[in-house]
Design goal:
single chain; about 200 residues; 2 domains; about 0% strand
């Protein structure tokens, strides 16, 4: 008998659900192996981190973290032009290094930590199975570090954009209130747009 409920097939256990439920310890390692079989090398890496490190790596956010076609194309081009490119290994061989570094850059647990602080976690996930196919960690680390840096920078840029947008909205709202006040006052010195009766910081 399998693990599916006849009345609800969606109740079956899947690798993604195991990781999303935040399993840890030996169970986390088993989940990691299952994720690896299900999603390839990056699944094995994330599963290993879920079992050993836990935290964000063991939650659904890690399983669902973004790796887009644009990211893949960027890292492929970066690898092909990199002085660190490994002569006998294609981009497909080193992709997991870029992926694990990229995902680490999105991990909020690492927000206040630099590369040197998080590298040990990623190296622990670089298991014998991954090493056999994708090379040892010392060869992979430059690519993981580059991806970590890029991913972290993209998040910082996005945060700055959101902050600026919020400030712009607040500025426009305050200006609209000024204009409404001018119309209500009916003061000849007040008019829509900037004027002498507006708050001092208004510039437009």
């Amino acid at each position: 008998m399998d693990n599916r409920d006849a009345k609800n097939p969606d109740d079956r256990v899947t690798p993604g659900k195991l990781a999303a439920e935040g399993v840890g310890g030996a169970a986390g390692g088993a989940a990691g192996a299952a994720i690896g079989a299900f999603a390839g090398p990056i699944g094995l890496l994330v599963g290993g981190l879920a079992g050993v490190i836990g935290g964000w790596w063991a939650g659904k956010e890690a399983v669902e973290a973004s790796w887009t076609k644009d990211d893949d194309a960027y890292y492929r081009n970066s690898y092909e032009g990199s002085p660190s490119r490994i002569a006998d290994r294609s981009y497909d061989d080193v992709r997991p290094a870029y992926q694990i570094g990229h995902l680490a850059g999105t991990n909020p647990d690492y927000r206040a930590r630099d590369w040197n602080d998080v590298e040990g976690d990623l190296q622990r996930a670089w298991s014998d199975d991954v090493r056999t196919r994708h090379g040892d960690w010392q060869a992979a680390r430059p690519f993981a570090r580059d991806a970590f840096t890029r991913s972290r920078s993209a998040i910082a840029d996005a945060g700055a954009t959101v902050g600026q947008t919020a400030r712009d909205i607040g500025h426009r709202s305050a200006n609209a209130i000024d204009d409404l006040k001018d119309r209500v006052d009916g003061n000849p010195a007040s008019r829509p747009g900037p004027d002498a009766t507006d708050r001092p910081e208004r510039s437009s």
